[in-house]
Design brief:
The complex is a heterotrimer of chains A (about 350), B (about 300) and C (about 325). Chain A is of the alpha/beta class and about 350 residues long. Chain A has 14 helices and 11 strands. Chain A is globular, with a radius of gyration of 21 Å. Chain B has a domain at about 100-245 and about 280-310: Orthogonal Bundle (MetI-like fold), CATH 1.10.3720.10. Chain B has helices at about 10-30, 35-55, 90-130, 130-150, 155-165, 170-195, 200-205, 210-245, 255-265, 275-305, 305-310. In chain B, helix 4 (about 130-150) packs across helix 6 (about 170-195) and helix 8 runs parallel beside helix 9 (about 255-265). In chain B, about 45% of the residues are buried. Chain C contains 10 helices and 12 strands. The model of chain C is unreliable at about 330 (pLDDT under 50). With about 325 residues, chain C is an alpha/beta fold. Chain C has a domain at about 245-320. Classes of the chains: A alpha/beta (about 350), B mainly alpha (about 300), C alpha/beta (about 325). Chains in contact: A-B, A-C. The interface of A and C includes residues 2, 269 and 286 of A.
C-alpha cells in the first residue's frame, strides 16, 4: 500500500544532541469530578514523556479525549500536573506567578478557534499588542513590533489590518492575527491545539505553510496537538500518537506514518480516505479516561489481540495483564508501547 | 526585511477613530427605536427642567413662611396645580423637587452599579478560574449577594436611613447599598460567559494576571449589560427615594417628589379629596421611571451582545 | 429515464439588512435512483443552502428560483400538504451536530417514532418493533430506545439521526456534514454505515462535505462548489485523481495523502479567501486566488464545459474553467 521510502532524508532539523527546549517528564493529570467520593478519577494524562528539540515540530496525534489538549495545557503551564514535571531548556518549570510570567514570554499558545481566541471588542492592533503590554507595559517601539509581527504572520501590508475588528476578518486572517499575537513576544516554542481544524480546506495549507516558515526562518519549535494525521505528514518532524492518556507510538513522521507498528496507529491510518487496503474500523466508542483498562490500555479494542495474532506471537496474556510502560520521549528510536510489536521486532526498548 | 516602509499613523489614534465610528453607528441604531427616542427626549427635558429650576422658581416661594397663596387652593391660572397646606404652588414644588429626585436617582445608581459590577466581576472571575482560594472568595461574595438579595430592600433602607445621620447623602447610600445585588448577579453571569471564551485562556497563556483579564477582557464585554442595567436602576432608585421620603425617613427639609407625597398624606389630602396635591408628584415619579425604562429597554436591544457578535 | 433528483438552474438569494446576497448562483445537479452524489465546498460556497433548498427549509428571507424535481415533482412549487408528505417520507436530511438536532428531554425511541407517527407509515402497534429494527440497522442495540440523548456518545447520536432519517424509507438521504464533528474512527464507522445502507436499500444519497477526499471515497460522483456555483462535476475518482478545475485541484490537495512524498513538508493551500458573496469579482470568481489565471479570466465567466469530450462531444465530466473550454466559445 504505502510506497514511500523510509526517512532516507536528513532527520528532523535540530533534533540532535542538545537539550530539548521543552520536555514533559512523567506528566500525569488526574481530574476528580464533583459528586462525593463515589466518582472515579479521570486520568486525562497518565504518564507521558515527550521532548521538543529546538527548531523541531512535534505532532501530538490522537482522538478527542485522549489527553492531547490537557498535555498541551500542562506544557503551557496552564494546568499543573498531578505528578511529573515540565522542563524548559533543562530547568523545571516553577509555578510561582513570577516564574510563570517569565515562562509565558517564551512559550506561546495558538488555539483551535480563531474566532473565539480574539476579543470581539478589541482591534487587531490591541489584540496583537496585548502580550507586549502584559510584559513590560507600553514601549516606544510597540507599534513597530506589532506591525512586524503582523507581516511576519502573513498579514501584509500590516497597516491595512491594524484598526480592524475580528468580525471584519476571514477565518484564516483571524488565525494569522492570533499567531502574530504569539510571535510579538518572540517566543522559542509554540504550543498549538488543532490550529487549522476550524479553517476552510483551502486556507488550511496556507496556515500550515506559515508554521513551517516560522520554524525555518526563526527556528521556532512547535508542539501541535491534532487529530489530523495529514497535518503531521504536512509539517511535523516527529509524531507522538496518544491513546487514553499515554503516548503509544513515537518516532519520526516517516517511521510512524509509513511503517506504523502499534495496532492503534495502523487502524487510524487505515481508515483515512484513499488509504488503500482494507480499513480496520475499530468498533465501539472512544474510551473513557475514568475507566482505564488494566494491562495494555488498548487491549479491549485491539484488532491484533482479537484476531488471535497476539496469541500466536505468544503475548496475549501480557497484553491483558502487563502495562507496556511509558515510552521515552526523546528523538532517536521509533518506539511503541505494544507487546505484540515488540515481540515482532524482537526487542523490548523503553519498558519503564 | 519586513519592517514597514512607513510607520502607521499612530495605531492609538486609529483605534480612537474606530471607537468614534462605533459610537456613531451605535447612536444611529438607537435613533431607529422610537420608544427609546421618546424616553430620551423626556429625560433630557426633565434634566433641563431640573437644571433650570432656579430660573423658573423663586426658592423664597417654597418656604413655609413666605408662601404666596392660601392653603389648598385648587388649580387656577396663578397656581396651575393648586397649592399645598401652606399655600405653596404645587407646580413650583414639583419643579424644585425634580432636582433632589433626579440627583438621588443618579447618584444612588452610580453607587449600586459600581458596587454590583465590582462584586459581580470579582465573583465571576475568581469563581471561573481562581483556584481553591478564588472559589472561596467567589462563593463568599455570592452568599453575601444572596443575603442582600433576599433581604427586603425597603426594610434595609429604612433601617440604614434610621441609623445614619439624616440627609440626602444618607438616602443615596441607603438606596445604593440595597439595590446592588441584582446587578452583581447579572454581571457575574455575564462574566462567567466571557471567562469561558478562548481569548481569556489566550490572555492567561500570554502571562496576563487577574487584573489584566478582568479589566482588559471582562469589563468591556460586561459594560453594555451594565449600561442597560443602569438606566433601569435609575428608575428604581427614584422610586425608592420617593418611598423613603413618603415613609418619612428622608430629610424633612429637602423638597423631593416623595416628600411632597408624604406632606400630602400628612395633610390629609387623600381623605379630603385634594387630588391636585397627590396626583402630580405621583405622576412625575411614574413619568421619570417610564422615561428611564424606555431608554434602558432600547439600549438593551441595541447592544444585545448576541446580536452584535453576529455582525 | 427519470432521475431521483433533478436540480436545474437553482438560484438562492438572501435578503439581508443592506441588500441582496446571492448564495447559490445557478446550480444544476442530478442524481439517479440509488446513486450517490457528493457536494464539496468550503464555508460560504452555498453547499448547505442547496441542501436546505431541496426540501424548502430555507428561511423566509431567501428567494429561490429554478427547479428542484424530486422523482419528477417540483418541490419548489409543491403545495404545503404535499411538501410535508415529501419531507421525510421521500427525502430525509441528516444534519451535522446531532446533539442539537435531538430533543434532550425525549427518549431516543420516541424521537425515532415521531416521523413514523406523523406520516403513519406503520400501524401504531407496530411502531415499537419498527424502532427496534431501525436501531439495529444502524448498529445500536434495540434497548437504546429507552435512553435519552445525553446518555449516548457523539457517534451513537449520529447513528440515531440516521435511524430517524431511514424511518419512513425515503428514496433520498441528504447528509449535510454528517461526519464532520466526529473523530476519525467514529467517522469511518458512520461512513461505512451510510455506504452499507445506501447499497442495501437502494437509497439515493446526496452527501455534503468540505472534505473532498471523504466524498471521493464514499460517492460515485462529486460536484465541487465555489462561491455559489458548481465549478467541476464528474465521477468521483476522476475529479479527485485528475481535477480539471484549479479549485477542485486545491481542495483535493488540501488534505494530503499520507506517504505521498510531494506533500511531505509541503502543505498546499490557496492564497486569499473566498470572495464576498455580496460583491463577487468580475469575470471568473475564482481568478483572484487562481494559480493558473490568465488575462482573459478577468472578463470571462466560464460555464461548465465537457472535459476531454469524445467524438460526439460527450463527457462524463464538466468543469467551468477557460483552460477546459475553448477560450471565447460558449461564453455567456
Amino acid at each position: 500500500m504505502s510506497t514511500v521510502e523510509t526517512g532516507a532524508e536528513a532527520p528532523a532539523p535540530g533534533g540532535g544532541d542538545g537539550t530539548p527546549v521543552l520536555r514533559a517528564r512523567g506528566v500525569r493529570v488526574v481530574f476528580t469530578s464533583g459528586f462525593g467520593g463515589g466518582r472515579a478519577a479521570a486520568r486525562a494524562v497518565d504518564g507521558v514523556d515527550l521532548d521538543v528539540a529546538p527548531g523541531e515540530i512535534v505532532a501530538l496525534v490522537g482522538e478527542s479525549g485522549c489527553g492531547k489538549t490537557t498535555l498541551g495545557r500542562v506544557l503551557l503551564g496552564l494546568e499543573r500536573p498531578t505528578s511529573g514535571t515540565v522542563e524548559f531548556e533543562g530547568d523545571p518549570l516553577g509555578y510561582s506567578s513570577r516564574d510563570l510570567r517569565a515562562y509565558r514570554r517564551r512559550v506561546q499558545l495558538v488555539q483551535q478557534d480563531p474566532t473565539g481566541s480574539l476579543n470581539p471588542r478589541r482591534t487587531v492592533y490591541e489584540s496583537v499588542a496585548e502580550g507586549l503590554r502584559i510584559h513590560g507595559g507600553t514601549t516606544a517601539d510597540e507599534a513597530e513590533r506589532v506591525t512586524r509581527a503582523l507581516s511576519r504572520a502573513g498579514l501584509r501590508p500590516p497597516e491595512r489590518f491594524l484598526s480592524r475588528y475580528p468580525y471584519e476578518l476571514s477565518g484564516g486572517q483571524r488565525q494569522r492575527v492570533v499567531i502574530a499575537g504569539a510571535l510579538v513576544l518572540e517566543p522559542e516554542v509554540l504550543v498549538a491545539d488543532e490550529p487549522v481544524a476550524s479553517l476552510d480546506a483551502s486556507v488550511r495549507g496556507e496556515i500550515l505553510r506559515l508554521l513551517l516558515e516560522l520554524r525555518d526562518e526563526l527556528g521556532l519549535s512547535a508542539l501541535i496537538a491534532t487529530h489530523d494525521l495529514g497535518l503531521a505528514w504536512n509539517i511535523a518532524d516527529r509524531v507522538a500518537v496518544m491513546y487514553l492518556g499515554r503516548v503509544v507510538e513515537l518516532g519520526t513522521v516517516e517511521e510512524v506514518l509509513s511503517e506504523p507498528r502499534h495496532p492503534y496507529t495502523r487502524a487510524l491510518l487505515s481508515v483515512l480516505p484513499e488509504a488503500g487496503g482494507d480499513p480496520v474500523v475499530l468498533a465501539g466508542e472512544p474510551p473513557d479516561p475514568k475507566k482505564v483498562p488494566g494491562g495494555c490500555r488498548f487491549h479491549p479494542r485491539c484488532p491484533v489481540l482479537a484476531s488471535g495474532e497476539a496469541g500466536r506471537a505468544g503475548v496475549a496474556d501480557r497484553c491483558r495483564t502487563e502495562d507496556p510502560g511509558v515510552l521515552p520521549g526523546g528523538a532517536g528510536a521509533h518506539t511503541t508501547a505494544c507487546h505484540w510489536a515488540r515481540a515482532r521486532e524482537g526487542t523490548s526498548p523503553g519498558t519503564a | 526585511m519586513n519592517t514597514a516602509a512607513a510607520p502607521p499613523p499612530s495605531p492609538r489614534a486609529l483605534a480612537r477613530r474606530r471607537r468614534r465610528e462605533a459610537l456613531r453607528s451605535f447612536a444611529r441604531e438607537y435613533a431607529r427605536r422610537r420608544a427609546g427616542m421618546v424616553g430620551l427626549a423626556g429625560l433630557l427635558a426633565l434634566v433641563v427642567l431640573a437644571l433650570a429650576a432656579p430660573l423658573l422658581v423663586d426658592p423664597g416661594d417654597l418656604t413655609v413662611t413666605r408662601a404666596p397663596g392660601a392653603a389648598f387652593e385648587p388649580p387656577s391660572a396663578r397656581f396651575p396645580l393648586g397649592t399645598d397646606d401652606y399655600g405653596r404652588s404645587i407646580l413650583d414644588l414639583i419643579i424644585w423637587g425634580s432636582r433632589v429626585s433626579l440627583a438621588v436617582g443618579f447618584l444612588a445608581t452610580v453607587v449600586s452599579v459600581s458596587l454590583g459590577t465590582l462584586v459581580g466581576i470579582t465573583a465571576g472571575h475568581f469563581g471561573a478560574g481562581g483556584g481553591a482560594a478564588g472559589r472561596l472568595l467567589s462563593s463568599v461574595l455570592m452568599r453575601l449577594t444572596d443575603w442582600f438579595l433576599v433581604l427586603p430592600t425597603l426594610v434595609l433602607a429604612v433601617a440604614l436611613a434610621a441609623v445614619l445621620p439624616r440627609g440626602t447623602g444618607t438616602i443615596i447610600l441607603a438606596i445604593g447599598l440595597t439595590v446592588w445585588p441584582a446587578t452583581a448577579r447579572l454581571v457575574r453571569a455575564q462574566t462567567l460567559a466571557v471567562e469561558a471564551r478562548p481569548y481569556v485562556e489566550r490572555a492567561r497563556a500570554l502571562g496576563g494576571g487577574h487584573l489584566h483579564v478582568m479589566a482588559w477582557h471582562v469589563l468591556p464585554n460586561v459594560l453594555p449589560v451594565v449600561l442597560a442595567q443602569t438606566t433601569l436602576l435609575v428608575a428604581t432608585s427614584i422610586i425608592a427615594e420617593s418611598t423613603l421620603a413618603f415613609l418619612g425617613v428622608g430629610d424633612p427639609t429637602t423638597i423631593s417628589w416623595g416628600g411632597i407625597l408624604e406632606s400630602a398624606r400628612n395633610a390629609g389630602a387623600i381623605s379630603s379629596g385634594i387630588w391636585w396635591y397627590m396626583i402630580p408628584p405621583g405622576l412625575a415619579i411614574a413619568l421619570v421611571a417610564l422615561a428611564f425604562t424606555l431608554c434602558g429597554r432600547a439600549l438593551e436591544a441595541v447592544i444585545d451582545p448576541r446580536l452584535r457578535e453576529q455582525r | 429515464m427519470t432521475s431521483l433528483l433533478d436540480v436545474r438552474d437553482l438560484h438562492v438569494t438572501y435578503r439581508s439588512g443592506g441588500g441582496e446576497v446571492p448564495a447559490v448562483r445557478g446550480v444544476d445537479l442530478s442524481l439517479d435512483p440509488g446513486g450517490t452524489l457528493g457536494l464539496a465546498g468550503e464555508s460560504g460556497s452555498g453547499k448547505s443552502t442547496v441542501a436546505l433548498a431541496l426540501l424548502r427549509l430555507l428561511p423566509e428571507t431567501a428567494r429561490v428560483t429554478g427547479a428542484v424535481e424530486l422523482a419528477g415533482e417540483d418541490v419548489l412549487t409543491m403545495r404545503w400538504g404535499r411538501l410535508r408528505a415529501v419531507r421525510w417520507s421521500e427525502a430525509a436530511i441528516v444534519f451535522q451536530g446531532a446533539m442539537h438536532s435531538l430533543n434532550p428531554v425525549r427518549r431516543v425511541g420516541e424521537q425515532i417514532a415521531e416521523p413514523l407517527l406523523i406520516h403513519r407509515t406503520v400501524p401504531r402497534e407496530r411502531v415499537g418493533d419498527r424502532v427496534a429494527e431501525l436501531l439495529e440497522q444502524v448498529g445500536l442495540p434495540a434497548s437504546r430506545a429507552a435512553d435519552h440523548p445525553h446518555q449516548l456518545s457523539g457517534g451513537q447520536r449520529q447513528r440515531v439521526m440516521i435511524a430517524m432519517a431511514l424511518a419512513c424509507e425515503p428514496r433520498l438521504i441528504v447528509a449535510d456534514e454528517a461526519t464532520t464533528a466526529l473523530d476519525v474512527m467514529i467517522q469511518a464507522q458512520i461512513l461505512a454505515l451510510l455506504k452499507r445502507l445506501v447499497a442495501e436499500h437502494g437509497i439515493g444519497m446526496l452527501m455534503i462535505s468540505h472534505d473532498l477526499s471523504v466524498l471521493a471515497d464514499t460517492c460515485d460522483r462529486v460536484a465541487v462548489m465555489y462561491a455559489g456555483r458548481v465549478v467541476e462535476e464528474g465521477p468521483a475518482r476522476e475529479v479527485m485523481g485528475a481535477p480539471a478545475h484549479p479549485y477542485a485541484a486545491a481542495l483535493g490537495a488540501a488534505f494530503p495523502r499520507i506517504g505521498d512524498p510531494a506533500s511531505r513538508r509541503a502543505p498546499r493551500g490557496l492564497p486569499g479567501d473566498p470572495p464576498d458573496p455580496a460583491d463577487p469579482p468580475p469575470g471568473c470568481v475564482f481568478r483572484p486566488r487562481c494559480p493558473v489565471a490568465e488575462e482573459v479570466c478577468a472578463t470571462v465567466d466560464p460555464p461548465l464545459w465537457p472535459v476531454a469530450p469524445d467524438a460526439g462531444g460527450r463527457s462524463p465530466r464538466r468543469a467551468a474553467c477557460v483552460h477546459v473550454g475553448p477560450v471565447g466559445e460558449g461564453v455567456r
